[in-house]
Amino acid sequence: MDVKGLNRGACHCGSVQFEVDLPGGFEDLSRCNCSMCARRGAVVTSVPLDAFRILKGAENLTLYQFNTKTAEHYFCATCGIYTHHRRRSNPNQFGVNVACIEGVNPFELGDIPTTDGINHSSDRR
Predict the structure, then answer these.
(1) Cβ atoms within 10 A of the Cβ of 115, count?
(2) Are 99 and 107 in contact (CB under 8 A)?
(3) H/E element, 39
(4) Beta carbons within 8 Å of 25's beta carbon, 6+ residues apart
(5) In angstroms, rounded to a whole number, what is the distance separating the alpha carbons of residues 41 and 4?
(6) 17-22 and 5-10 beta bridge pairing
(7) Which of 3, 40, 86, 87 is spaced 20 to 30 A from 64 at the CA atom?
(8) 44-91 per-position pLDDT tens digit
(9) What gap in Å lies between CA 47 and CA 94, rounded to an integer?
């Protein structure tokens, strides 16, 4: 599956649509074991903030924050699908749910490393 370049994506119901620029394809694919990510089970790719643009439905995004309230997790208010989040470990990046990108089946990506969000590096300061 070739995802290099500009890709479109959406939540399940299509209310939220976005584009994400992946010039080198997927970078830093990961899952996370924190209390939030373990429950949603998403595979994410990391991109700079300016590589991700909401095309439609920004008003339909719901923000959820927990614990330190640093990370910003966005969900479609209609279908509940997690589309992206502003990362706690690097606020200059978004983590994008790869299952929302057109033509991507996360089950075909092989083994995905798991980030240790339970013992987040920001908590060790």
Answers:
(1) 19
(2) no
(3) helix 35-40
(4) 2, 3, 4
(5) 24
(6) antiparallel
(7) 3
(8) 999 999 999 999 999 999 999 988 888 899 999 999 999 999 998 899
(9) 5
